[in-house]
């Protein structure tokens, strides 16, 4: 059993990344506007933790900067490498640029163009491979061995977990009365970190993970207490491009089993409905991966514990322009 990240480590991390990663807002949702969009009013106060407010548009900067900033000067000089479908790629690229290091990013060739462009704009070198998350990990390891780069894993590392955990600390500080926190889950960095922070600081708060039905390896792993892997042909079916990882990280899985209360899955239609609801009820821009938490809160409340104040993490806002235009057109057509 690996050692678990401590609350003290998370608090130290919050100080380390301050000034680079943003303390993002916790937005209280107008339930009237939400009800107009979805046809009913939820029986709880709803808050959205807006990680799209980060400089790279997602929470991934927290963990990436926490790890890159702790590298030795010699490691920074040689450069860093990671494997990511987009948001962690931007986090590593941003952190490397801030610290004067070269960044190489291995991305799947089906990564959204907006995320590829944003990563390149941060000065990173992009290497494209196939759609399997295992393929990009192997390529990153190959290049690291060849060039001496330091690998910055997207989720399976204590520094990454501690960085993402700062999101959970902020939620407790911004809404001390919260009794349910919902986090997206893919490789498990955000969910394991958020749950670790919340449960150590305030054990009575429930923390649940949310993922697409079409990429539900985390739920299967949690329910069976055995780490499973789904083939890329299955996980790539979901619109949630940031949630297509084939398996939880080992260290993330251990933290999730210790601190997470449950995992719920949502349909593709529910993800779209949640995205439209966010656009209609707030000024926030959600990417599909970030909308799974609201989808769970609104359409799967019967599977979740009763709560009066619910915080859902909007993990990012890097949505493809064409998809955003489509959703906005649908809202305009309904008159919401």
Automatic annotation (TrEMBL):
Top-level taxonomic group: Bacteria
Q: Which residues form the Tryptophan synthase beta chain-like PALP domain?
A: 23-316
Keywords noted in UniProt: Lyase, Pyridoxal phosphate
- Single Gene Ontology BP annotation: L-threonine catabolic process
- Which InterPro entries has this protein been placed in? Ser/Thr_Dehydratase (IPR050147), TrpB-like_PALP (IPR001926), TrpB-like_PALP_sf (IPR036052)
Membrane-spanning parts: none
- Which GO-annotated molecular functions does the record name? L-serine ammonia-lyase activity; pyridoxal phosphate binding; threonine deaminase activity
Cofactors (names): pyridoxal 5'-phosphate
Annotated family? Belongs to the serine/threonine dehydratase family.
Entry protein name: Threonine dehydratase
Q: Which organism is it from?
A: Granulicella rosea
């Amino acid at each position: 059993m690996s050692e678990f990240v401590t609350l003290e480590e998370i608090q130290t991390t919050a100080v380390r990344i301050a000034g680079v990663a943003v303390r993002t807002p916790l937005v209280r949702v107008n339930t009237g506007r939400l009800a107009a969009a979805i046809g009913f009013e939820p029986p709880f106060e709803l808050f959205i933790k807006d990680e799209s407010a980060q400089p790279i548009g997602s929470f991934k900067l927290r963990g990436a900067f926490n790890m890159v900033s702790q590298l030795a000067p010699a490691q920074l000089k040689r450069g860093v490498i990671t494997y990511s479908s987009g948001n962690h790629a931007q986090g590593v690229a941003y952190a490397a640029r801030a610290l004067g290091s070269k960044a190489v990013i291995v991305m799947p060739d089906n990564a959204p163009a907006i995320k590829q462009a944003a990563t390149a704009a941060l000065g990173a070198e992009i290497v494209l491979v196939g759609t399997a998350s295992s393929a990009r990990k192997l390529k990153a390891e190959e290049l690291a061995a060849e060039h001496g780069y330091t690998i910055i894993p997207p989720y399976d590392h204590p520094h990454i977990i501690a960085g993402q955990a700062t999101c959970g600390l902020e939620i407790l500080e911004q809404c001390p009365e919260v009794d349910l926190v919902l986090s997206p889950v893919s490789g498990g960095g955000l969910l394991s970190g958020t749950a670790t922070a919340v449960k150590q600081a305030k054990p009575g708060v429930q923390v649940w993970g949310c993922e697409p039905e079409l990429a539900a390896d985390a739920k299967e792993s949690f329910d069976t207490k055995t780490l499973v892997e789904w083939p890329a042909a299955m996980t790539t079916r979901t619109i949630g491009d940031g949630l297509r990882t084939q398996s939880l990280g080992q260290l993330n899985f251990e933290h999730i089993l210790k601190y997470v209360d449950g995992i719920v899955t949502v349909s593709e239609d529910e993800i779209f409905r949640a995205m439209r609801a966010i656009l209609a009820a707030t000024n926030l821009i959600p990417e599909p991966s970030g909308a799974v938490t609201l989808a769970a809160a609104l359409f799967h409340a019967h599977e979740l514990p009763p709560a009066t104040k619910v915080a859902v993490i909007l993990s990012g806002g890097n949505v493809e322009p064409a998809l955003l235009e489509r959703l906005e057109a649908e809202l305009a057509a309904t008159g919401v």
